[in-house]
Design brief:
There is one protein chain. With 453 residues, this protein is of the alpha/beta class. It has a domain of 203 residues: Rossmann fold (3-Layer(aba) Sandwich). Helices cover 29% and strands 14% of the residues. Strands 3-2-1-4-5-7-6 form a seven-stranded mixed sheet, sandwiched between helices. Strand 4, helix 4 and strand 5 form a beta-alpha-beta unit. The chain is globular and about 70 Å long.
Amino acid sequence: MTATAAEPLFHLPAAIPGPRDGQDESRPLKVIDLFAGAGGLSEGFRQAGFDVVAGSDVDPDAVATYKLNFPEATPLSGDIREGSVKRDVLSVGRGVDVVVGGPPCQAFSQVRNHSRIIDDPRNSLYREFVASVADIAPAAFVMENVPGMAQMGVLEQVVEDLSLGGTYTVEPQVLDAADFGVPQTRKRIVFLGVRTALKTAPVRLTGTNATEVLGLIRQGKGQYEVDGRGGDAEKYLERLADPQDARIVTAAQAISDLEDLEAGRRLDDIATGELPRAKGAYQRLMRQGRGPTVRNVSVPRINRDTVTRLLAIPAGGNHRDLSEELLARYISGDKWGPSTDSGRLGRSHFYAYRRLHPAIWAWTLNTKADSAYHYRAARALSVREFARLQSFPDRFVFTTDERRGNIPGRIDGGATHSRYRQVGNAVPPLLAAAIAREVATLVRTARRRAALG
């Protein structure tokens, strides 16, 4: 049944609780992560000093990774639309200061039909996030999603939904992870909501603005260079080239200490002593807290045709740099993957033939191992290199549920693909940490002001 003006979508508590009597404002703030995946948001909030109370997700493999990396938190596995799972989420979430999450939200086109996206059945998980915020009643929340949600009509609807009838003041903004020290351009829309009763407004986050100034320029076939625009371009180019500046990070500054990994490597761990010394501030940051071994360093095998093509593609290049001969579907005679009627590479293949450029951040990684090839070696990246480009520290290990077969919530593809997917779907922790620090400042400042009267 569709809600009317007389029937609110969600029933709010009569009074939203504020700081409890005698509550120590110096204590760590508490956060619960809904639709947590492997835990990118949770890792960022933990780095910012939050206590992570719980993480919820339907994918049992992602929950296994979450459980391994957040032993202090309660892992909640299952579909939040199911009554028992929802009850567990609300029970564990009672009393947290902040709710975070990235619920899937698919139906953006509905605004053209003058219907609410929150009423569309395809957006039921988004509706569950809004309902959970209403039920838990935190001081603040963060919802992240794809930039497409910023289109006119949708944005206004989402802000209205999340405001819960004026209970929260909501600030939407599109952020690029590369502007916050992540060696990857990755745009996300972030909705930061603060309880209106706290009488403080959400702030707009500001990063380095490097993505507005710097870019990889294609000068011609096989010719790529990093360049800048605007009066501050030279300053930004110097910062980008400085391995001791961890605010603007290149692909090589992120993963150059893992260059010697070889295609087809089966071993998934390596002794830390076998790796070279850190080659800059970012690598030192990623190594903090790691143990005697580094995990997730196996590398996919690669066929002869792919090697031949990669050797013809320069760093930063793609299929447009291939000759007509190398655009043939099969080069060596080996038959692999689906054929095409034309005898040439199909459009679906083109995205795979892309090599990173060492002197600038990576493009947005997706969930597949061949979404980015190494800038020097003719190979795909390991899960650990994916994780480095997403700003996950080396101590963060990606795994899967030990149960085999088709278990509820598991996505087909096998354990290896699951690990790449978990990394590719995650919110970069350094971006999450930047958001978390602003949230912590907002909540503590507002509560301190309230305590002083």
